């Protein structure tokens, strides 16, 4: 039997060997000079732990909640579209892995399978549906009704993508997406609706939504919603004022606007602005268990795995995502034990300091 992966770096390496170069560019690349991609990672090196040795504390618990949803570890998987480009089972495999591991999927609008198909693949798991505030009001409301009927617990609205980022690798490769890859939520008969809602990710648009429009459409919706793609204090405040129950501090993994704040320093400022009462998730740059611990200690309720989940899916489908979550769990328990803190919900700023210059 094949030896299981022992590190996340190994999963990443194997995943890249399975993809064509053009897809590797799409996955690994980002906007502009990819400065934000690099800063997302280097920001984690700017913080160091403050361990307390001889704590007498063992078996630190890792469970928590996000928006009231139980999580075995403070991790969700990101809404990444075009998922069958990476593995034929796409988000169905991701949902099954989350179901097995006690974590939560965010299921993309631009996915290869519909919200209903992914829900059906992992019926016992809690799940969140992601939507773009784009296209017609009628299309948006129809998707909301489907999300609710399919048993989703919340809606994640991606607010940082009124158009696609300036991604030069994709331009160079003339990358195009077939509707069979991104159109899982749309019937062929709804092609116009799909073009209006998802087409703006690839071309420029004249229909950029406002907070006011979004909040008026979500006003009567029964599920809580999350604003994904916040990098500034002003936008965090605007999202909460518009009715968001939680936010995701995210720069889309450096794929949208380059030269925006890295996720970790943005989190610190935004948590300080919003105080302890609002659930805040962080994505963009999470690559190992100690990153999760740092983010939680600095104020995140949970983190969201983008590329790390894609690597798991590509490397070995459902099993690859499960192994990714297992390795994160094991590393987190190791780090928490060495840090001498009781458990994930006991973490705070006191466990961290900025690396002295
Ligand atoms: C291949 C790929 C496709 C993505 N598609 C979407 C999408 O359809 N909607 C969305 O809100 N975010 C999308 N994202 C962004 C992720 O949800 C997440 O914000 C980002 O990957 C986090 O950064 P990380 O990759 O450094 O973890 C995508 C990311 C990748 C890598």
TrEMBL record:
Pinpoint the FMN hydroxy acid dehydrogenase domain residues: 1-357
Q: Which Pfam families match?
A: FMN_dh
Cofactor(s) for this UniProt protein? FMN
User: What is the E.C. number?
Assistant: 1.-.-.-
- Mention one GO molecular function: oxidoreductase activity
* Domain of life from the UniProt record: Bacteria
Q: Where are the transmembrane segments?
A: none
Query: What is this enzyme's class at the first EC digit?
Result: oxidoreductase
The UniProt keyword set, sorted, is:
Flavoprotein, FMN, Oxidoreductase
PANTHER family cross-referenced by the UniProt entry: 2-HYDROXYACID OXIDASE 1, S -2-HYDROXY-ACID OXIDASE-RELATED
What the record says about family reads: Belongs to the FMN-dependent alpha-hydroxy acid dehydrogenase family.
What is this protein's record name? Alpha-hydroxy acid oxidase
Q: Give the species this sequence originates from.
A: Lysinimonas soli
Print the organism lineage. Bacteria, Bacillati, Actinomycetota, Actinomycetes, Micrococcales
